[in-house]
Amino acid sequence: MRKYIVGNWKMNGTSADLHEIAAIATMAAAYPSVDSAICIPATLIERAAAALPEFSIGGQDCHATASGAHTGCVAAAMLVDAGARVTIIGHSERRAAQHETDADIRGKAEAARIEGLNVIVCVGETLQERDAGRALEIVLGQLQHSLPANSSADWLSIAYEPVWAIGTGRIPEEKDVREMHAAIREQLVGRFGETGKKFRLLYGGSMNGENATMLLAIPDVDGGLIGGASLSAAKFEPILAAAANSGE
Ligand code: PEP
């Protein structure tokens, strides 16, 4: 399976940073065996996509409905219109701060799909949940209820992101990532049959140039969702290199 490395710029970036997105796109082109994308603020998508037609630019959310009275929200068709090819849905920061439920996330993923976007659905447990021995139950529950019934590996990937690893510099032990990704895979195969083997499962949470080789070598880790280390080409490059060298 080709590795998929996706950057998440979160609420960072203005027009002054378009040159860095261009630098990332240029650098990513040097790793043709790896699929990559950068999910940037909605305000930058149109300019970045127009300037970088070969590179996959993405959004970080979309609304579950096509249009209407939803002040401040962005519809999937608007992302497509601006040039996005992919969007993150259900990031833990949105689950927590915007109180997004699994049902909300499922609706958003369906809306994104209808407009032809690729989708990355995020799941992940809090530290409290892990410490209570509930990590598998929480993540598998999120997975069960966040994925649309017609999910297909052609357009949907899953990012396992332990909440306590995001932006903290901490990562789980290798065995815990292995266990979680195997459990996610098992559920996907149980639900979708053979096609369940084809979904790309990304790991996210403090992935960087130092730990990417180890993380990307874990079975069923088919890529990464990267926050902080995607903000510059210099930090993103070693992750792409690790993916290119991972041999799968
Ligand atoms: C993220 O925001 O999805 C993420 C994984 O962030 P970081 O790499 O900074 O932990």
Describe this structure in words.
- The protein is an alpha/beta fold and 248 residues long.
- It has one domain: Aldolase class I (TIM Barrel, Alpha-Beta Barrel), CATH 3.20.20.
- It contains 10 helices and 8 strands.
- It has an 8-stranded parallel β-barrel with strand order 1-2-3-4-5-6-7-8, surrounded by 6 helices.
- α1 runs parallel beside α10 and α5 packs across α7 (135-146).
- The longest helix is centred in the C-terminal third of the chain and has 19 residues, at 174-192.
- The mean pLDDT is 97.
- The structure holds phosphoenolpyruvate (PEP).
Number of helices: 10
What is the arithmetic mean of pLDDT? Answer: 97
Write down the CATH class.
Alpha Beta
Distance between the termini: 6 Å
Main sheet summary:
8 strands, parallel, barrel
What's the name of the CATH homologous superfamily? Aldolase class I
Q: Which molecules other than protein and nucleic acid are bound?
A: phosphoenolpyruvate
In one word, what is the shape?
globular
The side-by-side strand order for the widest beta sheet comes to 1-2-3-4-5-6-7-8
Provide the helix percentage: 40-55%
